[in-house]
Amino acid sequence: MMGASHAVSGAAAWVALTSTAPIALGTHPLPPQGVIIGALVTAGAALLPDADHHSATIARSGGFLTRGLAGAAGAASGGHRHGLHTAIAAVGAALLTGLADRLTATVPLLGTIPLGSALVLLALVAFANKALDLGRSGVVNLWLGATVVTVAVLAWAPEQLEWLPQAVLVGFLVHLVGDLLTTGGLPLLWPFLVRPPRRLRKAPVLRRVWLPNGYVALPVLGRTGSAREQALTAVLSLYAGALVVVAAGRLVDGIGRGTAGAASAAGVAGLG
């Protein structure tokens, strides 16, 4: 899958799991702000497995620094679609995100903040913005925009960072599913690659599912960037967008009710 497709699928999975709208699964319901912020964060998390590729969205999001990190990640994991494209890597990324929450710092105005989680949030928002082209082009503008979002979350909804490891896990796993549905497939048993016997490599159906390099694929989307992938991405975009709009509406209603309640209380106090 292309970077934008991964990001959209990650956001769609998150809102499906956390929204309580009728068209959502709602298995892990969150307040509206969690649905909205999480959609953006999970979109960024869905790009993490491709940190092993020198020209992936993550590598292009921060100039020489992210390119260098992507190169190191690719070398450490064995190359593109190797170690980072496994369920083990997904669980590891979620665990590391949870551990990052223990790193704190005291900063002006905000007080003590979960610095590790804030940095994870910052990076994932920047990756999502890059993939979805949500802001102005340019590395500086990209990271400034992500910084604004991160500071806003720390200032007004720091409790929403509690689900950060789950968002990373969901985004990571959705990425793997997306790649599994393309002709490239995945090394499901990495680092062990069981290659098919030669006599089976030309079997009409099996040769598309059990690849000569030992990868496994369910290539219903065809090649990366295919028309089928683009069609699926369009549908998921509409779905995720609709649920984000519903969450935004509920958030505004909640703020309105809170303001009205405060005004009413003030009026009663004044009468007293």
From TrEMBL:
Keywords for this protein: Hydrolase, Membrane, Transmembrane, Transmembrane helix
GO molecular function: hydrolase activity
Taxon lineage: Bacteria, Bacillati, Actinomycetota, Actinomycetes, Micrococcales
Protein name from the UniProt record: Predicted membrane-bound metal-dependent hydrolase (DUF457)
Transmembrane segments: 105-127, 139-157, 169-193
One Pfam entry name: YdjM
